C-alpha cells in the first residue's frame, strides 16, 4: 500500500510499483497507523464501556484489520485496478458491519477516503468518497437518533479535505515528473552536445592538419623533386653527383607518398575511399526514395580537403531535404570543374516552395530550420556563392560555387607540367 498518488490507469504503471520517496513512505506509514489506531480505539472503547455488542465490535475490528493487512501485502491490489476495487468493496462491507454495531466505526471513513481516491480512477474515487460519507452520516444518525449539523459536516468536510489533498498531491506529482523528464532531457542534450562538439573539434583538427600537410609539406616535396630532376638533367651523364641526386629524389618521392597517405588518412570517412566524385556517386546510389543521378562535367582534379568536405556535406544535406520534404520522383547532382572554380548543383522535381515567403533556411530544411543556413555558411566560409531557386510545383535547385584558391591552382599547374621537358629546363 502506498501513499495517495495519481490514479491508476490500465495504460500506466501503478504508482505502487514505482520507487517510493521518503515522503511517500511516511504518508504510507501514517495511513496504516491511522486506520489501525482507529480500529484499536473502537475496540478499546467497546471493551471499556462494556457495550452490549462489544464482542461483535471486536470481531468486526479484527476482520477489518485482517482484510486491510491482506490487501496491503497482496501485489495484485497494487498492480490491478480490478483487484484494488474488489479489495475496497471487501473493506467497505466489513466497515458497514462495524458501523452497524458501533458508532465509533464512523471514524474509519477518513482513511477509507484516501484509499478510495488512491486505488480508483478519479471520478470513481470521488463517487466512492461520496457514498462512504453518506454511509458515515447514516450510521451516526442511526446510533445517535438525532440529525445534527455536526453529523453532516464532519464526514462531508473530511471527504472534501481528502479529495483536495489527493488532487493537490497529484498536481505536485505531475510537476515533479515534468521536472524529472526535463532534467533527464537536459542531461541527454548536454551529453549529445558535448559529443557533437568533440566530434566537430576532431574533424576540424583533421581537416586543418590535412590542409597544412597538403599545402606545405607535400608541395615542398614536389618542388624538391622537380629541382632534383632539373639538376639531374643539367649534369653530365657520368657525373659522380648523379647517384646522390637519384637517392635524394627517391627519398623525396617516398616522403611525398607518405605525406599523401597521411593526408588521405585525415580526410573524413566518406572521402577515404576515393575522390569527391566517387563519394557523390556512392551517395546518390544509397539514397532511398527518389531516383538520383550523378553527373560529372569537366576534368576532375584533387581539391583541398575543406572544399571536398564542404561540397560533400552540402550534397548530403540537400538530398536529405529532397527525401524528407520534396516528394520528388527524380533528382540529379552535377559536379562541374572549371578553370578557377568548382560548382555543385542539386536539382529535384518535387513540389518546391516559395523562398520569398519563408525565412532563410526555414523551408525544406527538415532539421528545425538550419539546413539551408548551414549549407550557405559552409559555402561562404570558403568564399563561395550559395543560391536556392524554387517555385511551388516546379521543384528546387540548390547551387554552390567555390572559387579555387590561387596557391592550389599554381600547385595544380606545376603537377600538370612536372613531366614536361620544357618545364624542367625552365627550372
Outline the secondary-structure elements.
Layout: H1 22-48, H2 54-73, H3 75-79, H4 81-101, H5 109-119, H6 122-144, H7 149-234, H8 241-266, H9 276-285, E1 291-297, H10 305-326, E2 330-337, E3 341-348, H11 371-381, E4 385-390, E5 396-403, H12 406-416, H13 421-426
Parallel strand pairs: 1-2
Antiparallel strand pairs: 2-3, 3-5, 4-5
Helix pairs in contact: 1-2, 2-4, 4-5, 4-6, 5-6, 5-7, 6-7, 7-8, 9-10, 10-11
Q: Order of strands across the biggest sheet? A: 1-2-3-5-4
Mean pLDDT: 77
How many distinct domains? 3
Query: DSSP helix count?
Result: 13
Q: What letter string, H or E per element, gives the SSE order? A: HHHHHHHHHEHEEHEEHH
The separation of the N and C termini measures: 93 Å
Given the C-alpha coordinates, what overall shape results?
elongated
Summarize the amount of helix as a percent range. 55-70%
**Total beta strand runs:** 5
The secondary-structure class comes to alpha+beta
Low-confidence stretches: 1-19, 359-369, 416-427
Percent strand equals 5-15%
Radius of gyration: 41 Å
Characterize the largest beta sheet: strand count, sense, and whether it forms a barrel. Answer: 5 strands, mixed
Description:
α10 links the parallel β1 (291-297) and β2. 65% of the residues lie in helices and 9% in strands. Mean pLDDT is 77; it is low at 1-19, 359-369 and 416-427. It folds into three domains: 15-147, no CATH class; 194-267 and 411-426, no CATH class; 274-405, 2-Layer Sandwich (Heat Shock Protein 90). It has helices at residues 22-48, 54-73, 75-79, 81-101, 109-119, 122-144, 149-234, 241-266, 276-285, 305-326, 371-381, 406-416, 421-426; strands at 291-297, 330-337, 341-348, 385-390, 396-403. It starts with 21 loop residues before the first helix and ends with a helix. It has a five-stranded mixed β-sheet with strand order 1-2-3-5-4, covered by helices on one side. The chain is built from 13 helices and five strands. It has 427 residues and is α+β, with helices and mostly antiparallel strands. The longest helix has 86 residues, at 149-234.
Amino acid at each position: 500500500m502506498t501513499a495517495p498518488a495519481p490514479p491508476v490507469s490500465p495504460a500506466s504503471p501503478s504508482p505502487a510499483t514505482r520507487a517510493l520517496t521518503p515522503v511517500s513512505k511516511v504518508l504510507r506509514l501514517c495511513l496504516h497507523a491511522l486506520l489501525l489506531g482507529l480500529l484499536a480505539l473502537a475496540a478499546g472503547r467497546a471493551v471499556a464501556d462494556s457495550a452490549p455488542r462489544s464482542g461483535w465490535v471486536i470481531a468486526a475490528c479484527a476482520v477489518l484489520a485482517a482484510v486491510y493487512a491482506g490487501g496491503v501485502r497482496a501485489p495484485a491490489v497494487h498492480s490491478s485496478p480490478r483487484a484494488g476495487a474488489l479489495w475496497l468493496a471487501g473493506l467497505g462491507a466489513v466497515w458497514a458491519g462495524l458501523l452497524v454495531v458501533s458508532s465509533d466505526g464512523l471514524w474509519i471513513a477518513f482513511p477509507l477516503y484516501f484509499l478510495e481516491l488512491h486505488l480508483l480512477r478519479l471520478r470513481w474515487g470521488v463517487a466512492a468518497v461520496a457514498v462512504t460519507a453518506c454511509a458515515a452520516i447514516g450510521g451516526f444518525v442511526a446510533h445517535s437518533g438525532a440529525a445534527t449539523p455536526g453529523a453532516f459536516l464532519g464526514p462531508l468536510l473530511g471527504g472534501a479535505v481528502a479529495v483536495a489533498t489527493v488532487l493537490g498531491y497529484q498536481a505536485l506529482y505531475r510537476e515533479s515528473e515534468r521536472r524529472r523528464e526535463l532534467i533527464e532531457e537536459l542531461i541527454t542534450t548536454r551529453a549529445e552536445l558535448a559529443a557533437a562538439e568533440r566530434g566537430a573539434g576532431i574533424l576540424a583538427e583533421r581537416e586543418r592538419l590535412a590542409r597544412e600537410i597538403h599545402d606545405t609539406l607535400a608541395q615542398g616535396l614536389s618542388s624538391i623533386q622537380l629541382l632534383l630532376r632539373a639538376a639531374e638533367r643539367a649534369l653530365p651523364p657520368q657525373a659522380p653527383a648523379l647517384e646522390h641526386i637519384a637517392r635524394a629524389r627517391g627519398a623525396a618521392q617516398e616522403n611525398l607518398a607518405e605525406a599523401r597517405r597521411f593526408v588521405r588518412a585525415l580526410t573524413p570517412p566518406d572521402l577515404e575511399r576515393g575522390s569527391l566524385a566517387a563519394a557523390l556517386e556512392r551517395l546518390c546510389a544509397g539514397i532511398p526514395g527518389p531516383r538520383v543521378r550523378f553527373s560529372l562535367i569537366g576534368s576532375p582534379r584533387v581539391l583541398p580537403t575543406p572544399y571536398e568536405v564542404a561540397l560533400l556535406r552540402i550534397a548530403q544535406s540537400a538530398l536529405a531535404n529532397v527525401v524528407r520534404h520534396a516528394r520528388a520522383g527524380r533528382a540529379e547532382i552535377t559536379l562541374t570543374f572549371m578553370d578557377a572554380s568548382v560548382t555543385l548543383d542539386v536539382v529535384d522535381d518535387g513540389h518546391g516552395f516559395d523562398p520569398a515567403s519563408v525565412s532563410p533556411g526555414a523551408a525544406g530544411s527538415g532539421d528545425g530550420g538550419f539546413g539551408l543556413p548551414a549549407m550557405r555558411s559552409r559555402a561562404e566560409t570558403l568564399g563561395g556563392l550559395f543560391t536556392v531557386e524554387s517555385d511551388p510545383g516546379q521543384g528546387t535547385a540548390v547551387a554552390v560555387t567555390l572559387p579555387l584558391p590561387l596557391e592550389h591552382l599554381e600547385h595544380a599547374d606545376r603537377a600538370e607540367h612536372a613531366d614536361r621537358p620544357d618545364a624542367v629546363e625552365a627550372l
